[in-house]
Amino acid sequence: MHYASSRPIYHVAAIREIESRHPGGEPPPMERAGAAAARAVLARGSGTRLAPLIVCGPGNNGGDGFVLARILRSRGIDPAVVFAGDEARLPAEAREALAGYRCGGGEIGGEIPERPFSLAVDALFGIGLQRPIEGVHAALIDRLNGLGCPVLALDVPSGLCADTGRVLGKAVKAACTATFIALKPGLLTLDGPDHCGEVSVHDLDIAPESLLPAEGRVVTPELFKTGLQPRLRNSHKGMMGGVGILGGAPGMAGAALLAGRAALKLGAGRVYVGLLDNAALAVDTDQPELMLRGPGEVLESGFATVLAAGPGLGRSAGALVLLKQAIATDLPLVLDADALNLLAAHPVLAGHLHKRTAPTLITPHPLEAARLLGIDMAEVRADRIAAALALAKRLNALTVLKGCGSVIASPAGRWYINTSGNPGMASAGMGDVLAGIAAALLAQGWQAEAALLCAVHLHGAAADALVERGIGPNGLTAGETIDSARRLFNAWIHRQQEP
Q1: Is the pTM of this model over 0.90?
Q2: Segment 263-286, tens digit of pLDDT
Q3: Strands 407-409 and 333-335
């Protein structure tokens, strides 16, 4: 049984390099892009007699729109075409595309007509946009967004940075995006998913990975399928490892318990929850299999083969001591929440973390990442991939920068974007569950990078499965994702065994 392939992702500069390395051939790339756009338009089908609208910009993205308009006319569809640019300054290929459209009887206008359309095509700006959109182009985007019909964006919604997913002043909110050659990061992370809608990739008969190795990849089970193996019948709990959770300061015991429950239900043989608040409870009555201990006992017992520090840890002097002790061990280590805040506040400790030889996984959200890097959170949001890579290298730790389109980065420079998950995950405790899942996989012998990729993708997919069943997104809780993740994880393992 095959899983969905992990698609390559390239920054704009890499796409340009691929274009320069491609031998060309006929038809030329703009013609192929316009034809791909026409297939996307025709595939949607309007179901009405209304004509589509195509808004073309001053560059090659506009040229793609002119080719699309010419092809639609040849199919008996007469679109309204608006050109927002200076004809004399069009690039040569785009100018030829405009001429070809006119030769077929096509006309262009300067403003969007006041009438309804079946579909609007955004061919204003392509992947090269770096400056904020202003003036007439900003007004056009507002008009496009207010038309009340679906919008198809060509390559990337105009106003969205293709490299980062940042909105540059104004951005088109598309129902679907037909992107060319390969995926770009901005389609998948930060504001991208809210502006791109459904993304389809049209390679234009170019095999990008034959010309340039992928810079990044989309996370799918294909990347970690070797870990999805059934247990031997001759198994015992000692073979599945022991997870030690360090956290649960006064008032925050729930965070440590969530991490512990996630670790237990994702397959760890034994889970020890070291609560700083010793008076919190003697047993987790909802999950009595968890062994509640003092944090020192968890560290010193020798039963834990993996540590997860941070869920409800707090920032007390005692918490700092525990973190120092955890970093000093030779055990695989997952760091989340206040463990990361303590690292940011104690740079010497971060230096010790960098020297570890055992695997370290960190799971910051943007504010925690900003503290660790010593920068403003806006800088983290400005380039999430760069921030994740910088953290991975600085701390010698596999890193997931959480958020819409979570970015996973390795100290060696590999990076991935995860597309599972939904807004219901904007809820307390989700990070604790993620830390527990990652720790459970490490305890069962997973390679560290695969463990983090699986944990992030599985957690998001578990939340998606709940929403499909009508649970959330509003009101979705972290605890609900644990059982969902367990079901999905076992389904993946079963699927891996199918012929």
Answers
A1: yes
A2: 999 999 999 999 998 766 788 889
A3: unpaired
